[in-house]
């Protein structure tokens, strides 16, 4: 496991590599963000961003999503994976927002995770991006990078990864680090072809050093 000095070096390096990292899901308000993140489950941000311009033009409020038949909403998002289930969750979510929150997106994790289709990761993204509340949302990129670098253990669950990162990263850096680690995993430390030879963190990375040693032998 890495010490605090090494983690500080990782955070500073990722800041230098991706100083402008931010949420890549297109949205204009918290409600659109909730819908976009819900759609992004097991789907790429790129694909979601192809669907949401027309979707958000047609549906601007929770009431709009409930004003159409489920089949129509399914057709509007049919290019998204799991679109049938996601359409159902969107309509259920919108009904709850209207009935319980006056059509507004709630601002606590406890309330957000009770919404259909919204898990802890989605809730953390909404808290961080929409409401500027410090949070770290663990997606596949963060989990992979954290374990490869040795910040977390290979056997750690998603919740354990989140708790470890929150404990070892200053709270005021949670949200920025979340985006930078996503960019690092998405564009540099990729799942199948990590760019280990040119990685500025190679000297700290247990997985990278193992891969490089294997490549030489």
Automatic annotation (TrEMBL):
PROSITE patterns: ENDONUCLEASE_III_2
Residue ranges that the Swiss-Prot or TrEMBL entry lists as coiled coil: none
Pfam families, alphabetized: EndIII_4Fe-2S, HHH, HhH-GPD
An MF annotation (GO) of this entry: metal ion binding
Cofactor section: [4Fe-4S] cluster
Biological role stated in the UniProt entry: DNA repair enzyme that has both DNA N-glycosylase activity and AP-lyase activity. The DNA N-glycosylase activity releases various damaged pyrimidines from DNA by cleaving the N-glycosidic bond, leaving an AP (apurinic/apyrimidinic) site. The AP-lyase activity cleaves the phosphodiester bond 3' to the AP site by a beta-elimination, leaving a 3'-terminal unsaturated sugar and a product with a terminal 5'-phosphate.
Protein name: Endonuclease III
Provenance organism: Ornithinibacillus sp. 4-3
Gene designation per UniProt: nth
């Amino acid at each position: 496991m890495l010490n605090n000095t090494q983690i500080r070096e990782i955070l500073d390096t990722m800041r230098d590599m991706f100083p402008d990292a931010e949420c890549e899901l297109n949205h204009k308000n918290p409600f659109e963000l909730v819908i976009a993140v819900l759609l992004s489950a097991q789907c790429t941000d790129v694909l979601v961003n192809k669907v949401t311009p027309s979707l958000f033009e047609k549906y601007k409020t929770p009431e709009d999503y409930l004003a159409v038949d489920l089949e129509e909403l399914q057709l509007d998002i049919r290019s998204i994976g799991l679109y049938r289930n996601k359409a159902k969750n969107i309509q259920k979510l919108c009904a709850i927002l209207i009935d319980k929150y006056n059509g507004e997106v709630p601002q606590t994790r406890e309330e957000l995770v009770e919404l259909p289709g919204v898990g802890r990761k989605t809730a953390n993204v909404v808290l961080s991006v929409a409401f500027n509340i410090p949070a770290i949302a663990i997606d596949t990129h963060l989990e992979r990078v954290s374990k490869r670098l040795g910040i977390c253990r290979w056997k750690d669950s998603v919740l354990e990864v989140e708790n470890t990162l929150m404990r070892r990263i200053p709270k005021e850096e949670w949200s920025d680090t979340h985006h930078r680690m996503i960019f690092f995993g998405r564009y540099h430390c990729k799942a199948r072809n990590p760019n280990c030879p040119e990685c500025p963190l190679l000297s700290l990375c247990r997985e990278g050093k193992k891969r490089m040693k294997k490549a030489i032998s």
